[in-house]
Amino acid sequence: MMVMMMKRISAVLLLTVFVSILFPANGVNYGDQSRPPTYANPDDYGYRHCASWKLPDGTPLYSGCDPYSMERCGKKMEFSYDCCAGFEQSPIPLGGPSNTPCGKLIPQFDDCPSVLKTLGFTRLADHLKNVPQLNQKNGQPVTIFAPLPADGSELNKIYGE
């Protein structure tokens, strides 16, 4: 008797699974999958512009490919278009809707503050421009460590502000 009941229950469960696979429920909404993601388009924005997301605290978040629209912590992240590392704004019109084309190549020695700025170390990059030892072009390699205290409380002391 027990075996017969188990066979019936198994058959009912198997039939239920089969029907649910063949005829999915119409009321289930898995999100809007008809719209593709909106990708950043730095080439349309201007010459030598790179796209990134801006975190709520202003820190840029770079991607290995063009970023796409997404949400982080429930907030939509907006695209930010800035000069790619190694380039700065130039008054030369180079096409694209940007009023600030990035056509000026930064000499390799002077590129360090630019790279630090694109990584979010804006205050350190501005401070480095005033260090006389870094403005001497003697061909010697320079290693720069970007201090970043965990809570950010000592940044004013580090940069002498």
Write the layout of secondary structure elements.
Blueprint: H1 2-22, H2 42-45, E1 49-54, E2 60-61, E3 70-72, E4 75-77, E5 79-83, E6 87-88, E7 104-105, H3 111-118, H4 122-128, H5 155-158
Antiparallel strand pairs: 1-2, 1-5, 3-4, 6-7
Describe the structure.
The chain is an alpha+beta fold and 161 residues long. It folds into 2 domains: 37-105, no CATH class; 107-161, no CATH class. The chain has helices at residues 2-22, 42-45, 111-118, 122-128, 155-158; strands spanning 49-54, 60-61, 70-72, 75-77, 79-83, 87-88, 104-105. It has a 3-stranded antiparallel beta sheet. It has a two-stranded antiparallel ribbon with strand order 3-4. A hairpin with a 5-residue loop joins strand 1 and strand 2 (60-61). The longest helix has 21 residues, at 2-22. The radius of gyration is 27 Å and the shape is elongated. The model has no long low-confidence stretch (mean pLDDT 68).
